[in-house]
Amino acid sequence: MTAPVPAAGLAPGLPQASRLERQRLVDDFVALCEIESPSRRERGVADRIAGELRALDLEVVEDESRHATGSDAGNLIARLPGARDAPTIMLCAHMDTVPLDAPVQAIERDGRFANAHEAVLGADNKAAVAVLLGVARRLASEAARVGVELVFTTCEERALAGARALDREALTADFGFVFDHASPIGELILAAPTYYRVEARFRGQAAHAGIRPEAGRNAIAAAASAVSRLRLGRLDHETTANAGRIEGGTAPNVVAERCRVELEARSLDHSRAGEVVTDIVDACTEAASDADCDVEAIVDEQFRGYRLPRTAPPVRVAAAALEALAIEPRYVATGGGSDANVFQARGLPCLNVANGTERNHQPDESVTRAALETMLDVALGIVGAAGGMSTPATDAAGGIGAPETDAASGAMS
Fold first, then answer.
1. Which residues pair with 80 in a beta bridge?
2. Alpha-carbon span 62 to 81, nearest angstrom
3. Which residues contact 37 (CB under 8 A, 6 or more apart)?
């Protein structure tokens, strides 16, 4: 299907959130954060979301993705119909969080929400989940011209596993939006990286470390040598590499027979990401050979990078929604992935939109009340702006014409 194109001069057609809607948004957010849902344990949050949507007389479909992801819940999809000649858009948020080091007790101080305990709050991505529930409530009582598909995914924090397991044919949207970038509201993420995971399994020879060390071949030493040969961190303005985990050996008095290293490579340039992976595998192979060890390198492309032009339909719609709120759109690239990577790779144009949360994945993660409320206004504005879109037939008859292409500006965040 050819995606509709935004007509010139889009004007969002939905009023901003009311005082009652803003308070309900905050209440939802706090309740969602306090339902623990680390990846693969999303059942409680999924049930809460489904219950809220069904209370609005919406049909909620839970897919069978749990068989692929290992989660105790599947992805959720709910639909709100629009006019026959209008596009359908997808709004997406993920239900899982990174692992929790302590329970979540959301507290507000000076207009800012954080966890009372030394652990993440879960604003990534429950701020967006609460916003989508707010959008659903509005549209259940005040129908929009545009059709809306609400998608809530599992296991996003595990290399986008939930979105990867979602059946693309289950979605009818022309384009979509993911609200999953922890940066100031106004940022639109036009480029995201290709991400490779590399697992290197070194195998040497065990021996008594005090009596026969010469008979052993130390896999830990081989792995350490491999890591020492690598360039890690920021390699250039589009590319990073990291050695994130290493484990091996059995005891201090045994020459380590086995060692496993987990590494990653990311780049906005897909080919460059592949080059870095090749460097990692070569370094592991050479280090293993020098230590008379064996190594098996397992390479997995977790998700593919993408770039959106500023003229892409979701970009223009989001920009119109921001401008209507007197927020200047800022076009950036990121070093992080999101479910948008998966949807893009499957032919669904999808924009990742900054959600105003701060320090995601950290114990001091937070979000302000003002950011939550503004995010809801932006989401409502996106729905309204998308309703002002022209169809491909209209464009052929004298619309705005074919979009030009341009790259995202800005450095990785």
1. 148
2. 18
3. 43, 44, 45, 95, 96, 97, 122
- Whole-angstrom distance, CA of residue 323 vs CA of residue 135: 19
Task: Specify the pLDDT at position 390.
Answer: 52
Q: Are 165 and 65 in contact (CB under 8 A)?
A: yes
Under a CB-based contact definition with an 8 Å cutoff, are residues 77 and 93 in contact? no
CB-CB contact of 90 with 176 (8 Å): yes
Report the C-alpha gap between 376 and 304 in whole angstroms. 29
Q: Which one-letter DSSP state was computed for residue 215?
A: G
- What CA–CA distance (Å, rounded) separates 166 from 71? 13
Query: What are the tokens at 403?
Result: 């979009």
Residues sharing a CB contact under 8 Å with residue 66, sequence separation 6 or more, in sequence order: 72, 73, 74, 154
Q: pLDDT tens digits for 192-226?
A: 999 999 999 999 999 999 999 999 999 999 999 99
Write down the pLDDT at residue 412. 38
Ordered domains of the chain (ranges, CATH): 5-192+305-396 (3.40.630.10), 195-302 (3.30.70.360)
* pLDDT digit string, tens, across residues 306-328: 999 999 999 999 999 999 999 99
pLDDT at 191 over 90: yes
Burial (0-12, 13-18, 19+ Cβ within 10 Å), 363: middle
Burial class of residue 215 in the structure, from the number of CB atoms within 10 Å of its CB (0-12 exposed, 13-18 middle, 19+ buried): exposed
CB within 8 Å of 89: residues ≥ 6 apart: 146, 147, 148, 149, 173, 174, 175, 176, 177, 314, 317, 382, 383, 386
Give me the helices (H) in 118-171, please.
Answer: 123-141, 161-165
pLDDT 10s digits, 98-137: 999 999 999 999 999 999 999 999 999 999 999 999 999 9
Backbone angles phi, psi at 79, to 5 degrees: -130, 145
- This prediction has a pTM of 0.88
Burial of 38 (0-12, 13-18, 19+ CB in 10 A): middle
